[in-house]
Design brief:
Cofactor: Mg(2+); Zn(2+)
Protein name: Alkaline phosphatase
Helix content: 40-55%
Organism: Podospora comata
InterPro entries: Alkaline_phosphatase, Alkaline_phosphatase_AS, Alkaline_phosphatase_core_sf
Radius of gyration: 35 Å
Strand order of the largest sheet: 7-8-6-5-9-1-10-13-2-14
Shape: globular
Largest sheet: 10 strands, mixed
Number of strands: 16
Catalytic activity: a phosphate monoester + H2O = an alcohol + phosphate
Oligomer: single chain
Distance between the termini: 89 Å
Low-confidence stretches: 1-33, 35-56, 73-114, 584-590, 593-610
Structural class: alpha/beta
Mean pLDDT: 84
Strand content: 5-15%
Length: 610
Amino acid sequence: MSPTSKPASGERTPLLADGVPSRNSIDSLRRAEQEDAAIHGTPLSPTPTARTRTVRELLLFSWALLATAGVIVLAVVLQHRNSTTNPPTPTDPIPIIPGDPGTGTPYPAISLPPKKDRKRNLIFMVSDGMGPASLSLTRTFRQHVNNLPMDDTLVLDQHFWGTSRTRSSNSWVTDSAAGATAFSCARKSYNGAIGMEPGFKPCGTVLEAAKRAGYKTGLVVTTDVTDATPACFASHVGYRWQMDEIAMQEIGEGLLGRSVDLILGGGRCHFLKNSTAGSCRQDDVDVVEIGQKKHGWGYVDDRAGFDSLKLGKNVSLPLLGLFAERDVPFEIDRRHMNDVYPSLSEMAVTALKALEEATKDSEKGFFLMIEGSRIDHAGHINDPAAQVREVLEYDKTFNAVLEFIEESDTEGVLVATSDHETGGLSTAWQAPNELPVYNWHPEVLLQANASAEYLTLLLQQHMIANPVEEQQQLQDWIREDLVEKRLGIKDALEIEINALASNPLLAMNIFSKMVSIRARIGWSTHGHSAVDVNIYSSGGPGTEDIRGNVENIEVGGFLRRYLDVDVDEITRELREKMVVDVKEAEMTGRDGHPEEWFVEVDGLVGYATA
């Protein structure tokens, strides 16, 4: 068809880009209609007048306007009907808006449906310093030792729930104090804070609120009971090293009175007046005596006393059990001293039974915090042989709690997580310029039967007892008695033995490195790291709120919601009673830590465990 020819009447013409026809295009269409009428002999429709076109356009406009209004009205009606007859269910996802980590403002809590007035128990476990690599290390070690298949995993693995982000309000890398405050208060705070928000403002804890609501409460740890994690649930001080004051508050000398019914762990030295053997207090206050006479505490301080409790069947609350001067030994060492120190799992089972008995006729259950404290210490020392036994004992304790919940007639929930990772553990290590070595050797950890901490103690005791011993004799003793007999290392280098004999203050790190290198295990730090940590749970009402990746304060938020307790009321009471000196900066020093955390050792800066 030529550019000037017209299409037949049955053909379709292309659509124009402009949907509104111009005056010229209307005239062209009219001429085309006239031509078609002449060719086919059909009558031509009358030409519309301007008035006719105006009326038609008005009618079309009115119809479009009415149709649009109708659609809007219908949409409003449907929206109203849905919002009143089909409200969102509590399981619908609610967006989490990040809070302000600089002020400690919590992330918005996810609301649970109203709880029925039912009895319930909540067990919260903390694996201090345990990161995901610690689980990999322990799982493989267990499979190797027991010749298990690859799918035979830890109990913890079978109850994996999610992960937690761990930063504090003043550092990307948290310490245990800020980490535990996130759990106990559901608030972000500064490193070193014990039940305090930024500005040195006290925050109520879930344990204190639970006690006020009628629950029984307990703390079980393998470290000093005045250490950061347990302290954050039952005391309020500006800094974690105020351990003498923490001891006083834990037995009931704080602003709220006694909030804890049962405490089991180490740290006896902070409860004895400084004129007593084994005390580490700075004053002459007898905390045990005050607890017994003023607050009614029962007290046991040795293995015989623990055994008299009959795993919780012979306990009168409140009970204070302090079984070590400071920390309970690492499990790798404690198992050889079982007649002196109870294990984490034994103390946990005792606490569970005691609290169950104490609440059997009550409408309320109990809240118990259990900490595998010394996983963290093994990470600080970079001692894989000690850490793997700590995680195994923690896994055993986790299983014991699960069994308790399953056998109990009372509803119960177990939630477990870590405050942070320690050591930057890697389950493989390769030297620079070395050919690929994609492996590590769990058998090296199996051969070790003592921790680097205990070996260092033995070395220092030996050197004190033998001050004039010849250097060669000392080296022979180190090689035979410590390295070969207790670490199982038969290929120790002369430079390693010489270093141990010449630098006893550095022996702990040297022993740990000897094991790590041979096992091909790597460490990136002797401090904490910012890696996300795992969450584990038995499941139960509300636990879906902490599925996936959550902030650590969301774990704290779940604890208070599950128990249905008013922590904010406790916070208001504390702030009314305590003179709060609000400060802008919590501490000065390096990297968010005060100078007191750094200690000089032989001209080297050593980082205190946290």
